[in-house]
Design brief:
The protein has ten helices and ten strands. By secondary structure, it is α/β, with parallel strands linked by helices. It has a ten-stranded mixed β-sheet, sandwiched between helices.
Length: 299
């Protein structure tokens, strides 16, 4: 059985507003699925149609604090959801893999792998939704418009998610992480906003986005393709911040993105940007069991 609490940690029953599956604030409480074995996590929704934050206690295997956030993003034009895990520690912004959802990190065992560090208050995870299906993977849009949609997503992260993280966590800077295409988001966001980002952990990343552009190229794309803009980066403000940033790239020796990681490491090295490329040997491939072990090591 699940019990819901307000985000301030008070049991709903102490306020006289309780139900089996959630907090009745202004309307009914619903679950995304009634099946206790459903793969998708179950959330409590207010009927207000605006940002409401609730804490949902999980089954025994996951007992740490878990907050669900949902609000309408005017920058993207629709609701956006995220999950936060933990009560304190270094804040980590988690980008999902290509077209992934905000619950991916939980469903794939990543949160469970890090549960000891989360429970101990060493780290706090903020897992966001992707917009890849609206941008890079949207073949119905002109390639320039795909980049613009990606830019809207980045603005959502910068001006909506980051303030939320700073409101919950007292840290002035954040870490970013992701796997596969999520690693691109983590690195690109960190490199474009090094005043916000102190650390990047990119696992099995792809960093050259030209395959998504159908041969089209313009300046807006250039400044979102790190294999292009970093070699030409001469701005002292950015370079000074890069030298204070901790950049980690992890990849398996049989990973489909191994070459891209070597290429990105070479680019960073030629610019004198500190980084760590960690190649995991023993036939390690592009998959969640590898990334679970990486997360435990890197965080």
């Amino acid at each position: 059985m699940y019990d819901c609490f307000r985000s301030n940690g008070l049991d709903a029953s102490t306020t006289g507003e309780s139900c089996r599956y959630g907090v009745l604030r202004t309307g009914e409480c619903r679950f995304a699925a009634q099946n206790e074995r459903a793969k998708r996590p179950k959330y409590c929704h207010s009927m207000r149609g605006q940002a409401d934050y609730y804490l949902l206690l999980q089954p025994d295997y996951l007992s740490m604090r878990r907050d669900y956030h949902n609000w309408y993003s005017h920058r993207l034009g629709h609701q956006m959801e995220l999950l936060a895990f933990g009560h304190g520690g270094a804040p980590i912004l988690v980008f999902p893999s290509s077209r992934g959802r905000f619950f991916e990190y939980e469903n794939t065992g990543m949160v469970q792998a890090l549960s000891g560090k989360i429970d101990a208050g060493n780290i706090q995870l903020f897992c966001v939704d992707s917009a890849d299906g609206e941008s890079w993977y949207n073949r119905g849009l002109h390639p320039h418009d795909r980049v613009m949609r990606h830019g809207a997503y980045e603005n959502y992260i910068l001006y909506e998610v980051v303030p939320l993280i700073k409101g919950v966590n007292c840290a002035q800077q954040i870490s970013t992480t992701g796997v596969s295409l999520g690693a691109y988001h983590a690195l690109n966001f960190g490199l474009r906003h090094p005043d916000v980002t102190s650390r990047v952990v990119a696992m099995s990343g792809t960093f050259d986005m030209r395959p998504f552009m159908d041969g089209y190229y313009d300046q807006d794309f250039y400044f979102n393709n790190p294999v292009d803009y970093i070699p030409n980066m001469n701005d002292s403000w950015f370079l000074d911040h890069y030298h204070r940033m901790n950049i980690v790239m992890g990849v398996g020796d049989w990973d489909i993105c191994l070459g891209e990681n070597f290429k990105m490491a070479e680019i960073l090295g030629k610019k004198g940007i500190p980084h760590w490329l960690d190649v995991w040997t023993g036939g390690q491939q592009h998959d969640w069991p590898l990334w679970q072990r990486m997360a435990v090591k890197f965080f």
